[in-house]
Amino acid sequence: MTHIKRGGRTTGVLVAIVALFGFMAAGAFAADDFVPDEDQVEIAQAATYDVPITLVAGVFNPGQDDQCQLQGGGHYVEASVTSSDEGVATVSPSALKFDNCGDTRTITITAVDCGEAVITIKAVKWTARTGFNAEFSDGEIRVTVTNCDNGGGDLEVCAKPAAPAWANAILQAHNGSVPKNQQIKAKAYGDAVSAVAKAMENGATFNGVAKSDQDNYAHEVWEFLEDYTGKSLPHPSDPGVARPGWACVNG
């Protein structure tokens, strides 16, 4: 009886250790990030502005490759999209669903009245390989609404898509122009977009080129993707590559 009791205690300790190790292993995942193409937006009263949001993979352990917490098989994350002050700016849709890292979804911000508001993208529900311990970092966009005295009529706003949006456009063009067996598969596609997002520098600069210089900026993303994937990809200037977002509109 004593031996059985001792064994039971040992088993209990082992179970506790395994459970603790499992929790620690899950906790080793860095949070996947909701990355907006632009984290600061200035728009005129009554104008609208589209901002793509990309889910970017975290890192499993230092020195290892990015590891998305969504790995197919029904994995997903749903995020709420809210404005801190709907009297200044509203946003739609109110929720986004991502099935894999590298997925990009677009939100539309509508300016209501002059002032400042923060748009927040926050995970609220998910099924991931780390289960309950999965972590997702919030995305934020600071919105400034101006030009209220003129009714929003003469403020020109030009979209300047960031690197993840260009990466999606280039990869989509590639997959749409080759046979299915030559297409970039979902995981590799997501990894490539995540790698582009991780390579962005302060202010969404990419390889030293500012986002305001869209032609050269997109070219740098294209070169990065060709090196990363080892494939010949459509150039951003090619007719088959749809420019992300829109060019310029008057508020």
Report on the structure:
With 251 residues, this protein is of the alpha+beta class. It has 3 domains: 1-29; 30-155, Immunoglobulins (Immunoglobulin-like); 163-250. 27% of the residues lie in helices and 30% in strands. The chain is built from 4 helices and 14 strands. The strands form 4 sheets. Strands 7-9-3-1-11 form a 5-stranded mixed β-sheet. Strands 2-12-10-6-8 form a 5-stranded mixed β-sheet, with no helix packed on it. The longest helix has 26 residues, at 2-27. It is globular. Mean pLDDT is 81; it is low at 1-28.
List keywords for this structure.
single chain, 251 residues, alpha+beta, Immunoglobulin-like, 5-stranded mixed beta sheet, 4 helices, 14 strands
Q: How would you describe the shape?
A: globular
- Global Rg: 22 Å
CATH topology of the largest domain: Immunoglobulin-like
CATH architectural category of the largest domain: Sandwich
Helix fraction? 25-40%
Level-1 CATH class name of the largest domain: Mainly Beta
How is the topology of this model organized?
Blueprint: H1 2-27, E1 32-36, E2 40-44, E3 48-56, E4 58-59, E5 66-67, E6 76-83, E7 89-92, E8 95-98, E9 104-111, E10 115-127, E11 136-137, E12 139-146, E13 156-158, H2 163-175, H3 186-199, H4 214-229, E14 248-250
Parallel strand pairs: 1-11, 2-12
Antiparallel strand pairs: 1-3, 3-9, 4-5, 6-8, 6-10, 7-9, 10-12, 13-14
Helix pairs in contact: 2-3, 2-4, 3-4
Short synopsis of the structure:
With 251 residues, the chain is an alpha+beta fold. It has helices spanning 2-27, 163-175, 186-199, 214-229; strands at 32-36, 40-44, 48-56, 58-59, 66-67, 76-83, 89-92, 95-98, 104-111, 115-127, 136-137, 139-146, 156-158, 248-250.
